[in-house]
Design a protein that fits this description.
The chain is mainly alpha-helical and 94 residues long. The chain contains two helices and two strands, in the order ββαα. Strand 1 and strand 2 form a beta hairpin.
């Protein structure tokens, strides 16, 4: 932290509180990502149902792209939770 040109060191309590806020906010964000993932899953199921048997390349491309979106959202969720775990390990050391 910087106040008036001087660097102030955050107290351990301030660091722990900030890490806790980070963890809570990130977990809320992950919950939102999971909700989006579930919604996209429903959309993908609908797309598959309405295009069943067409075999058109554009439909295959759309399905493949949606599957990539779902996979990347899952990966993003795991990475975010890993960041929370890492900061919790850090703060448990003091």
């Amino acid at each position: 932290m910087v106040w008036g040109g001087a660097v102030a060191v955050a107290s351990i309590e301030e660091v722990k509180a900030g890490i806790n806020r980070f963890g809570q906010e990130t977990q809320q964000n992950v919950a939102q990502l999971r909700a989006i993932h579930d919604s996209l899953e429903q959309s993908l199921s609908m797309l598959r149902a309405v295009t069943a048997g067409t075999g058109h390349p554009a439909v295959g491309e759309a399905i493949a792209r949606m599957e990539q979106v779902r996979a990347k959202l899952g990966e993003a969720s795991q990475l975010a939770l890993g960041a929370v775990e890492a900061t919790q390990r850090y703060s448990s050391g003091f």
